[in-house]
Design brief:
The complex is a heterodimer.
Chain A (H helix, E strand, L loop, with lengths): L15 E12 L7 E12 L3 E5 L6 H8 L7 E6 L2 E2 L6 H10 E4 L13 H11 L6 H14 L16 H14 L4 E5 L7 H18 L2 E6 L2 H7 L2 E6 L2 E7 H6 L4 H9 L5 H6 L18 E7 L2 E6 L3 H19 L1
Parallel strand pairs in A: 3-8, 3-9, 6-7, 7-8
Antiparallel strand pairs in A: 1-2, 1-4, 4-5, 9-10, 10-12, 11-12
Helix pairs in contact in A: 3-4, 3-5, 4-5, 5-6
Chain B lengths: L4 E14 L2 E14 L3 E5 L6 H8 L8 E10 L2 E2 L5 H7 L4 E4 L13 H13 L3 H14 L5 H4 L9 H13 L5 E5 L7 H18 L2 E6 L2 H7 L2 E6 L2 E7 H6 L4 H8 L49 E4 L2 E3 L15 H14 L4 H6 L8
Parallel strand pairs in B: 3-8, 3-9, 6-7, 7-8
Antiparallel strand pairs in B: 1-2, 1-4, 4-5, 9-10, 10-12, 11-12
Helix pairs in contact in B: 3-4, 3-6, 4-6, 6-7
């Protein structure tokens, strides 16, 4: 895949913290049951932003996240974090530094916390491994601080995960990730398992913490409506490829790729009148006729707006974008 | 007008005996269901929505469930008084259920076609060959391709969306009068969800089935429901037609739910949140259960449970804010925007009404 035109890091002040290029991740590679989970993924994440990665189950979005944090070896391509190729990180000491800088919040708040450890041990464990506190008294104090920063009572420190609700468990998961003072956090479907009213709480908490701690997020989700509230830019994935990357607002105003359109049209909105008039579009991959894949790749349609398409389709997408932006201007005028 | 009521739940109260004590999961629920309509029951996890509907089909564990009070009248018969044998004739035949997780609710060791044919043999008393024929028709109806080949497949060979189609086929096998769908699309992707919901709406029209749709996703409710009941802490706190609930909500909990739903409109950056979490029903709170999380709570909310106040013939809400002597409050901005739309929809002054044309009444 090639970046046509100027590189994604367009402006000088935007510094990429993560750069993924031509990432491939195959499972059972070479065998009969080979699964090509990630075929060709390239994108960058700038320092201080939230990058939303959306797609349906099986699109490879979680695999991309797991590859990024080095849970398993990648099949091909390159991932660099803060300018360093993560494939070169091998020694235990380097791995520790890497993992201290990058943390992950998982989907299932119950399954990702050890049921036999108290909250204090769960959060304190991370502090101990990284030698961030000298003694247990200091550690306890830090655990209390962390619990309070995620909106939990310090008395919760001696409880077990099973004594919490899903939303509270997710807050413990967030506190654990924050314990090592990372720069970059991957949220893998961190809110999907929660109730709607609790989702809003956690999203707002994540936004607050980002401001306080200068964090960068990769926010992986299948729900396009929540992603909008937290992301600066969004990448849409389908069957192992990134199909569209652009700034968050633009994705909702001017979705260019037919798959993005179908995803947006499938989301039910809490408005019966709008639902009655709703026309849903379905995406059929056969719509593209890419016989020869030589000119197919991520192409820049407008500054910061990339589409996975054939070179000849660029003009078409450019026109489509202008039309949609004009319509939006009228609507929001 | 002809009475089309098919199901009536009166003052239902259910408790569970647990190690920690008695959990009052459902605390006095009333609702009715008419023929051919979709009633959506909305609420957070633990609000009692699943328990109330499982009670209709008598699927709650006998060991620790206590039905404290209430009647469930299906076409005039109280289902709670039926023997297990009589109940088996109703369950799956007149009242069928679709569950949330299609993987755990299908038998992993049985061919899907046989699972669809099973209730047909059991309830309709037809031969196996005839049942197979009907099962193949059903698979076709719910959009499973190549029914003859897929008849012999096992659930693990199907994707989540396909399994849910199998579940719907099983539920529809005996042409039930009532279909209870308990979060049928929560585990599915949005595009698959859109297909399944479209399918359910289509089948409802064709077969004139009544649907009780349980969900916590208000977007899905807007797409499916004729009427909506909002549950909180084991009680229905507000019910009305879909338009009344979405455009003229009265209960602060409904306000909170609506305002915390993300929309696809650009420009909104901060999400409204309902503070706190639902109460523990081991010790149900005194007064209005929602009061501790309610920024509009009145003094009386903490002492006395509010009555069901009437808003219109079809719209009721359980909040003291509707009492004549209650102070006027300013709902969240999102709710005010919705109320403005309600006026334009129902008072016939505004562009939406002119464009829509079918403003009044529920969708058919």
């Amino acid at each position: 895949m090639r970046w046509e035109g100027k590189p994604l890091v367009a402006e000088a002040e935007k510094k990429a913290i993560v750069e993924i290029s031509e990432l491939k991740q195959y499972f059972n590679a070479g065998k009969k049951n080979e699964v090509r989970a990630v075929k060709d993924v390239s994108f960058s994440i700038y320092e201080g932003e939230t990058f939303g990665l959306v797609g349906e189950s099986g699109s490879g979005k979680s695999t991309t996240g797991r590859a990024l944090i080095k849970l398993g070896d990648i099949t091909g391509g390159q991932i660099s974090y803060k300018g360093q190729d993560i494939n070169d990180i091998k020694r235990r000491k380097d791995l520790l530094t890497f993992r201290k800088s990058m943390q992950m919040i998982f989907q299932d708040p119950y399954a990702s916390l050890n049921p036999r450890l108290t909250v204090k041990e769960i959060i304190g464990g991370a502090l101990k491994v990284h030698g961030m506190t000298q003694n247990s008294k200091e550690r306890t104090k830090r655990v209390y601080e962390l619990l309070e920063s995620v909106g939990l009572n310090r008395q919760f420190a001696n409880r077990y995960p099973s004594e919490f609700s899903g939303g509270q468990c997710q807050r413990v998961g967030i506190a654990r990730a924050l314990a090592v003072e990372p720069d970059f956090i991957i949220c893998d479907e961190a809110i999907s398992a929660l109730d709607v009213s609790i989702q809003a709480q956690v999203v707002n908490l994540l936004k607050e913490l980002k401001e306080q701690n200068n964090l960068t997020y990769l926010f992986i989700a299948h729900d396009l409506s929540m992603v909008k509230y937290i992301s600066d830019r969004i990448g849409v994935m389908n069957s192992g490829r990134v199909l569209e990357v652009c700034e968050a607002d633009e994705l909702y105003i001017a979705p260019l790729h037919p798959y993005t359109e179908s995803l947006l049209s499938a989301i039910p909105t809490p408005d019966p009148e709008a639902e009655r008039k709703r026309v849903r579009t379905e995406y059929d991959p056969k719509y593209h006729h890419y016989d020869d894949h030589s000119n197919v790749g991520l192409h820049e349609i407008a500054p910061e707006h990339f589409i996975y398409c054939h070179k000849d389709e660029i003009a078409l997408y450019k026109k489509k974008r202008e039309k949609l932006l004009r319509q939006a201007k009228q609507q929001y005028a | 007008m002809e009475d089309r009521t098919i199901l009536e739940v009166k003052d239902l109260a259910i408790s569970f005996q647990t190690f920690e004590g008695v959990v009052k999961a459902v605390r006095g629920v009333d609702f009715t269901l008419k023929k051919g309509e979709t009633l959506a029951i909305v609420g957070e996890s633990g609000s009692g929505k699943s328990v109330s509907t499982k009670a209709i089909n008598r699927l709650l564990p006998k060991k620790n469930t206590m039905i404290e009070s209430g009647e469930i009248l299906f076409e005039g018969t109280d289902l709670l008084k039926l023997s297990e044998k009589e109940m088996q004739k109703v369950r799956g035949n007149d009242i069928a259920m679709i569950f949330q997780d299609p993987m755990t609710s299908l038998n992993p060791t049985m061919q899907v076609g046989k699972q669809i044919a099973e209730p047909i043999v059991k309830h309709k008393g037809v031969s196996k060959e005839e049942a197979k024929k009907q099962a193949l028709d059903l698979m076709d109806l719910v959009g499973i391709k190549n029914p003859t080949e897929n008849y012999k497949s096992y659930p693990h060979q199907f994707s989540g969306g396909m399994r849910q189609r199998v579940m719907i086929a099983i539920a529809l096998a005996c042409e039930p009068k009532i279909l209870i769908a308990d979060e049928p699309t929560t585990a599915l992707d949005v595009t698959i969800q859109a297909q399944i919901l479209g399918l359910m709406n289509k089948l409802k029209k064709e077969l004139d089935t009544s649907i009780i749709f349980i969900t916590h996703d208000l977007g899905v409710v807007a797409q499916m429901a004729d009427r909506v009941a909002v549950m909180y802490a084991g009680q229905i706190v507000e019910h009305g037609t879909a338009d009344e609930i979405f455009y003229n909500p009265m209960h602060p909990y409904t306000w909170g739910l609506l305002a915390s739903m993300p929309t696809l409109d650009v420009g909104q950056t901060e999400l409204y949140t309902i503070p706190g979490s639902p109460p523990n029903l081991l010790h149900p709170p005194v007064g209005d259960a929602f009061a501790p999380r309610n920024e509009f709570a009145l003094e009386i909310d903490f002492h006395e449970e509010p009555d069901m106040f009437k808003v219109s013939d079809t719209h009721y809400a359980k909040t003291w804010l509707l009492h004549p002597s209650a102070p006027a409050v300013e709902p969240p901005e999102e709710v005010r925007r919705r109320k403005a739309k309600f006026e334009s929809l129902y008072l016939g002054k505004g562009e939406i009404n002119e464009m829509g044309g079918e403003a009044l009444g529920s969708r058919s």
